[in-house]
Write a structure and sequence with these properties.
elongated; Rossmann fold; Alpha-Beta Plaits; 13 strands; alpha/beta; four-stranded antiparallel sheet
Length: 317
């Protein structure tokens, strides 16, 4: 049994197709990233899988259960850290874990959970005195109280400084090493590339690309290229004296040469040297997941917010 099986999932709000017939599966022990601009439909999709929203069409199985029909049973098996996690201000992380354990009617070792999320040094600090990263770690700690088989982490590092982000990354890597299955949403493409085994990129309710970061870059990227800092006149010279495709980015003062084979770089540099013109920094470069993401969602409405509950949407709290 796969932890998550989504088939032709749909969720509409009037004429708005928030989720428009998407299908994907998540394997056991996998970190699966769900990416997309605001309004793409990823949060709606996550909330349907968590049993918080009712779908309009398609099939969803999470740990073998229908999230909407078997929500109570499912919530005993999953852990969730929502966007902008917060908690009672005068409660310490250790007290919060004990409180959650009472809610789930389970016995836990609070100190062991605190060690697992790298928070043992702040166990007795009030929540309102914790740093942003420590607050997110508290959320992660609470999501582990019921020993979940599956974790939903919705933008767990948004707004954190680089050091705090990397600390959260280490916690996520540790959870993966213990065999946890993790669904991660993030706006940081480097984060997805670092942590996720596979990603799905959503736009306007549809999945526009899915696979490993490398597969998506290979399929949708522009390949390896040579970049030379120089003039447009130099670009014209290289183009006239080689068989290479040569483009020029005037805003960056950069000559861009796609490389079909690596020896093409030597031909371009030889032509640049023979020109007698000035040229500066050179580098070879391939698209990152961030480059491909921007290309795939270009023109997307990035200021909309699909997370608002619609008036006619029956949402379980």
């Amino acid at each position: 049994m796969l932890p998550i099986e989504v088939t032709s999932l749909k969720k509409h709000y009037g004429d708005l197709k928030a989720v428009d017939g998407i299908s994907f599966t998540v394997k056991e022990g996998e970190v699966f990233g769900l990416l997309g601009p605001n309004g793409a439909g990823k949060t709606t999709c996550i909330e349907i899988m968590e049993g918080l929203r009712e779908r309009d069409g398609g099939e969803v199985k999470v740990l073998g259960l229908d999230p909407w029909k078997n929500g109570y049973q499912l919530h005993q098996k999953i852990g969730v850290i929502p966007q902008d996690f917060t908690f009672f201000e005068k409660t310490t992380p250790r007290e919060a874990i004990i409180y959650y354990a009472d809610l789930f009617n389970v016995k836990v070792d609070p100190d062991m959970i605190l060690r697992e999320v790298l928070l043992e040094d702040s166990a007795k600090v009030h929540f309102d005195n914790l740093s942003g990263g420590q607050k997110q770690k508290t959320g992660l700690a609470l999501s582990l109280v019921n020993s979940p088989e599956l974790l939903f982490l919705d933008e767990p590092t948004t707004g954190l400084d680089p050091n705090a982000r990397r600390a959260i990354w280490e916690v996520i890597r540790g959870l993966k090493a213990k065999g946890k299955t993790i669904i991660l949403t993030t706006h940081y493409l480097d984060e997805a590339q670092q942590l996720c085994d596979r990603v799905a990129i959503m736009n306007h309710g549809k999945i526009v690309a899915m696979g490993t970061s490398e597969e998506i870059i290979q399929q949708h990227g522009s390949g390896e290229r040579l970049e030379i800092h120089g003039s447009e006149k130099l670009a014209d010279y290289i183009k006239a004296n080689t068989d290479l495709q040569v483009d020029y980015n005037a805003a960056r003062g950069e000559i861009i040469i796609p490389l079909k084979k690596r020896i093409d770089a030597l031909a371009a540099l030889a032509a640049a040297e023979q020109s007698g013109m000035d040229w500066g920094e050179i580098q070879t470069r391939q698209d990152s997941l961030d480059d491909v993401f921007i290309r795939l969602v270009s023109g997307a409405e990035i200021n909309s917010d699909e997370t608002e509950a619609k008036p006619n949407d029956r949402r379980r709290r």
